[in-house]
Structures are given as C-alpha cells and as structure tokens.
Amino acid sequence: MIExxxxxxxxxxxxxxTKNGHVLLKSMLxxxxxxxxxxxxxxxxxxxxxxxFERRTNNEGKFLFNLKxxxxxxxxxxxxxxxxxxxxxxxxxxxxxISTISNIE
Length: 105
Description:
Elements: E1 2-6, E2 12-17, E3 23-27, H1 33-41, H2 43-46, E4 53-57, E5 63-68, E6 74-77, H3 84-97
C-alpha cells in the first residue's frame, strides 16, 4: 500500500506500507507529484537489483536500509531494526509489497 503525503509548498513524499499499516519505507522529499509518481513507477524493476539496497547500522547499533535509484541517489529509508535478520526481512517484505504500488494514478 502506498501513502502519498503533501508537505510544505509543492513537496511530496510517500510511505510504502504493509497491509497491516506498518511503514516499510519512507521516501525522501520530491519537488513535484509528477517526479514522485515517476519514481514509484520505476520501483518494480529497480528492486530486482541487490545494489539498490544500502544496508547500514546507526550509531546505536540499530539496522536500517536505504533504497537507491539507478543513479545511486537515496530515494527512501526503512525504519530501524534491532537485528540484521529483521532488516533483511524488511527488505524481503518491501520487495513483496512493491507490486501493490505499481498501479498508481
């Protein structure tokens, strides 16, 4: 499930959520709704590449991942996970849920 939010001015972001409403990925800000929608439409072929997932650990030892576009620019970040296995499961869930956002208006 995708949730699009308008921010101040003409800025937009999206949250990719599970069916239960848990946020899997929060996007960065986009300058227009058109730019946001173009990015969303390109997610499905993008996630087939392992190189688009940047796995990280924060300064508190929590795990997270960033999703990058084909140019290597971060387009979204995950929530924090307490374990590496949890983070990997989050990536798997993200891949499984991408199909629910491919038909955006």
